[in-house]
Structures are given as C-alpha cells and as structure tokens.
C-alpha cells in the first residue's frame, strides 16, 4: 500500500482521503483503525464510575443481560451495549461470539476443543469459546 503525506499550514484539522479501486478488507481495517476512539470508557465498580483505557481491556462479555469488562485483575460493569463497544473499541477487540469481544493482544493461547471449536485462554485466566459464526474472522485476525 502506498502512503503519501501532504503538509499544508493552511489546513486546520487533518483529514484523510483513501484512493482505491475497491473497498477491500485491508482498507476496511485501516478505516476502522483510523476512526477508533482512544477516549476512556466509563464503567462501574461498586458505587464508583471508573474510566478505563481501551488498551487495558482484556474482554467484554454479556452475562445475564449485563455487559462486563475484564482487565488484568478486575471486573467492571458497562452501561453500553456490546455492539456499541465493538464500534468504539475498533480492530483490537474482535468478536468471538454473540456475547463476547476479546482483545487479541491478551490471548495467552488457543486450545482445540470438541468438534473443532476453539477455546481462548486469556492472560488474566479468563476463557471463552470462539463460535462457528465468528471463527473465520477470528482466524484471519490472528493470522491462521
């Protein structure tokens, strides 16, 4: 992919233009990465509102209708829906099932399970299965 940067002192806010013959998965991933917010994410822990950095999130999972964030040592409650988090967190968090997003940087290892299913073990000792529907996208994200 060819990259060109044009500096102009008259431009007050940076903008990006992408020239391509078609919208490919690589371009979609680039757009996702560029539009991902680095803003902290509000979560609840007991009676406190805590601001979490997106890069500290290991997993977001729906449990009994509530979205929970997992970090290295803590579990927090989110007021957002999973699809909203997926859009906000971008390409580092990948959906592995209808109810779970994981940060691919914190996968410790992947274990083969019954019927070809994959069990993800995260570095914080949490685990979850990759559902068949999301398996192709997951394999592509980790390069297998």
Lay out the secondary structure.
Layout: H1 25-35, E1 41-45, E2 48-52, E3 59-63, E4 66-70, E5 75-78, H2 82-89, E6 93-97, E7 100-103, E8 107-112, E9 118-122, E10 127-130, H3 135-142
Antiparallel strand pairs: 1-2, 3-4, 3-7, 4-5, 6-7, 8-9, 9-10
Protein name: LytTR family transcriptional regulator
Please give a structural write-up.
The protein starts with 24 loop residues before the first helix and ends with a helix. Helix content is 19%, strand content 33%. It has 144 residues and is α+β, with helices and mostly antiparallel strands. The protein has one domain (38-142): LytTr DNA-binding domain (OB fold (Dihydrolipoamide Acetyltransferase, E2P), Beta Barrel). A five-stranded antiparallel beta sheet has the order 5-4-3-7-6. It has a three-stranded antiparallel beta sheet with strand order 8-9-10, with no helix packed on it. The chain has a two-stranded antiparallel ribbon with strand order 1-2. Strand 9 and strand 10 (127-130) form a beta hairpin. The chain has helices at residues 25-35, 82-89, 135-142, and strands at 41-45, 48-52, 59-63, 66-70, 75-78, 93-97, 100-103, 107-112, 118-122, 127-130. The longest helix has 11 residues, at 25-35. The model has no long low-confidence stretch (mean pLDDT 86).
């Amino acid at each position: 992919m060819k990259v060109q940067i044009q500096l102009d002192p008259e431009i007050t806010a940076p903008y990006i233009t992408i020239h391509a013959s078609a919208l490919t998965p690589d371009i979609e991933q680039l757009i996702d990465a560029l539009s991902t917010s680095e803003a902290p994410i509000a979560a609840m822990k007991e009676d406190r509102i805590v601001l979490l950095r997106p890069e500290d999130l290991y997993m977001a999972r729906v449990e009994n209708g509530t979205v929970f964030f997992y970090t290295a040592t803590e579990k927090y409650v989110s007021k957002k829906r999973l699809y909203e988090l997926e859009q906000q967190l971008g390409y580092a968090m990948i959906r592995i099932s209808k109810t779970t997003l994981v940060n691919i940087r914190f996968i410790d290892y992947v274990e083969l399970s019954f019927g070809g299913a994959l069990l993800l073990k995260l570095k914080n000792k949490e685990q979850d299965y990759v559902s068949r529907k999301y398996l192709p996208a997951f394999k592509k994200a980790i390069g297998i």
